[in-house]
Amino acid sequence: RLHLVTWNVGTASPPPDVTSLLQLNSLGPTMDMYVIGLQEVNSRITNFLSDLAFDDPWSIFFMTVLSPLGYIKLSSVRMQGLLLLIFVKHVHLPFIRDVHTHYTRTGLYGYWGNKGGVTVRMSLYGHTICFMNCHLPAHMENTEQRLDDFEKILEMQFEGENIPSTLDHDVLFWFGDLNFRIADYGIHFVRESINNKRYNLLWEKDQLNMAKKKEAFLQEFMEGPLQFKPTYKFDLYSDVYDTSEKKRKPAWTDRILWRVKNLCQHASKEGEFSEEERTISVILNNYISHMSYGISDHKPVTGTFGLELKPLLSDPLVTLHPEGEWSAEHDVLISYSAVPEFPSSAWDWIGLFKVAFRHVNDYVTYAWVEDDEISSNKDSKQVYMSAAEIPDMGGEFLLCYYSNNLQSIVGISQPFQVQPNRTLIEKDQTQEENSWMQKPDNLESHNEF
């Protein structure tokens, strides 16, 4: 289950609550992956320079919301105001590999990143998936420029060996502030149709729908029905369309589309491609806007999808677990084993993480798999961690094996308990008792008026 968000946030700070945006109170099964594409994130020079050194406020915000629920930030990519974040449940980490990011500037003839696309691709259970968050040129008359820019973004190539081109991925999601408008109809007709919830009257004049009928490269992209109000342009903190002097005509600028490669390849061979042969399919469960959010002049749009995969990978590359009881009173051991084809490296490491860790660098401590190895045989290896590195207070933790060659976590343990350091606790209790005994009898404060 994949939940995808696109939102032009208009340089605003995160809202107080995103429960409904992320459907966190949904009665159905929880999401496996969140993909969050933002446009117009505040990118003033001071903000941008600090964001290069640290996570930006939006990334921190979503990590704070999602990490306690068992999601980690798998990847992110930022280009000025464009930000793409991907969060996944812990259980899927060993089956996500070859994660790569890319960005394409299209503003000022490719020299400026205020418009363009940011992209993350990965192998998910052996299937190739690509996510593309775009901000295309504005204004009614720029349809051709939007299409040209999107074609340019599609042509970009990821760095690295054997990575397919964008359109060669099994599934490609395309979303963002695509800036397509409603042509021909006047503002009064558009607003009247919206007020009467007769959105279907506007669909045929939506510039993206019109382009899909003419442009071959767009015809392979699918989209859910636009059964929600156009998401642009609103007065701030309201559901009232633009009352400024410009009185922008409402439009479905914020969109989510997808393309399944095997459907495209077999579209012309109807009847030759059975359900049994299909290894991956995408089902749209809902496609809605969220009118309650008013921090910008756009309303966020979400798409909830079911990805049905026949796993091409079903075993993790590395399995690992803690040996014996863990506490900071003694050095501890980790056992792990790898499949024969695993491309290990001297730079691989095993990290100790709190169960609600935020991202791969959020470890408490780590051990190098070669430098800290203490035993090895054909079935498994053992690595030690120093007692000095284990948290005294204990708690619930996970072990993760990070592969330097694959640049990803390739093994994750079951959660386990680290016992509190009894020596330290007893010492703290003794100090507390001593300090209590030394306190004066009269603890009342004397206030003089």
TrEMBL record:
Recorded GO CC terms: endoplasmic reticulum; plasma membrane; ruffle
CDD domains, alphabetically?
INPP5c_INPP5J-like (cd09094)
Q: Name one GO biological process term.
A: phosphatidylinositol dephosphorylation
> What superkingdom heads the lineage?
Eukaryota
Record Pfam families: Exo_endo_phos2 (PF22669), SKICH (PF17751)
Q: From the UniProt entry, list the residue stretches annotated as the region Disordered.
A: 429-449
Occurrences of domain Inositol polyphosphate-related phosphatase (ranges): 1-313
Q: Which InterPro entries match?
A: Endo/exonu/phosph_ase_sf, IP5, IPPc, SKICH
Q: Which GO terms describe its molecular function?
A: inositol bisphosphate phosphatase activity; phosphatidylinositol-3,4,5-trisphosphate 5-phosphatase activity; phosphatidylinositol-4,5-bisphosphate 5-phosphatase activity
Q: What family is this protein classified in? A: Belongs to the inositol 1,4,5-trisphosphate 5-phosphatase type II family.
Q: What is this protein called?
A: INP5K phosphatase
Its lineage opens with: Eukaryota, Metazoa, Chordata, Craniata, Vertebrata
